[in-house]
Backbone:
């Protein structure tokens, strides 16, 4: 059972380039999330999804896009990379039922530098 | 809107001594509280959660947390620290009912010295 898998682990981009951060989970979780982690700032929610075909903005969505075509996959797209997007990006998933939210499971992150 | 405060950027403790990592929260209604741990170059790992019931919650690796409604606190504790407990710890909160985004604190780095 792999849990939440993120690729790539590291990436350096030039300003203006685009890329997609991949995230897949094998736990059949209905909710998925993208966070960014900046030093001393904790985690900020970028986008989340409550199920296939449904996505919504978090706290810091500008400059990013997401899609959720399957339960398993939740890619994050950077269209025009800017230095302010240098960060560590974490994907997470969780299960929500009538009992409530179960804890989120996190991937190991993608470390992205934009120069 | 909910919020979390972790007032200490870093906590230093000697191995074998008890440790406490502080967390206070603000949320509308009853809280759903979590502690996560992050080791270097890894994602966050779930330690424990509080929903309702007993104010003392036990979690992974010998950690526990005490919920105090009057002080709106959820401090993480361990009776005897290990060097391997050194990591970054995050408290998180959201309202118990409905779907609301989970809000994380800024994290507390725990350093356990031999």
Residues:
């Amino acid at each position: 059972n792999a849990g939440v898998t993120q690729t790539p682990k590291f990436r350096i981009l030039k300003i203006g380039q685009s890329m997609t951060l991949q995230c897949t989970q094998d736990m059949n979780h209905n909710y998925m999330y993208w966070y960014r982690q900046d030093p001393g700032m904790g985690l900020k929610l970028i986008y989340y999804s409550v199920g296939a075909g449904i996505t919504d903005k978090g706290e810091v969505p500008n400059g990013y896009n997401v899609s959720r075509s399957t339960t398993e996959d939740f890619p994050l797209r950077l269209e025009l990379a800017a230095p302010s997007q240098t960060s560590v990006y974490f994907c997470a998933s969780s299960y929500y039922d009538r009992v409530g939210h179960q804890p989120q499971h996190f991937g190991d992150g993608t470390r992205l530098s934009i120069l | 809107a909910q919020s979390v405060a972790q007032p200490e950027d870093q906590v230093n403790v000697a191995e074998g001594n008890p440790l406490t990592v502080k967390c206070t929260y603000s949320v509308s209604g009853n809280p759903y509280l979590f502690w996560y741990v992050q080791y270097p170059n890894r994602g966050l790992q779930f330690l424990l959660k509080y929903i309702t019931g007993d104010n003392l919650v036990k979690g992974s690796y010998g950690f526990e947390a005490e919920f105090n409604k009057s002080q709106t606190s959820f401090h993480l504790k361990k009776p005897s620290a290990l060097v391997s407990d050194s990591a970054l710890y995050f408290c998180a909160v959201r309202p118990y009912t409905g779907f609301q985004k989970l809000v994380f604190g800024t994290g507390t780095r725990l350093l356990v010295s031999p």
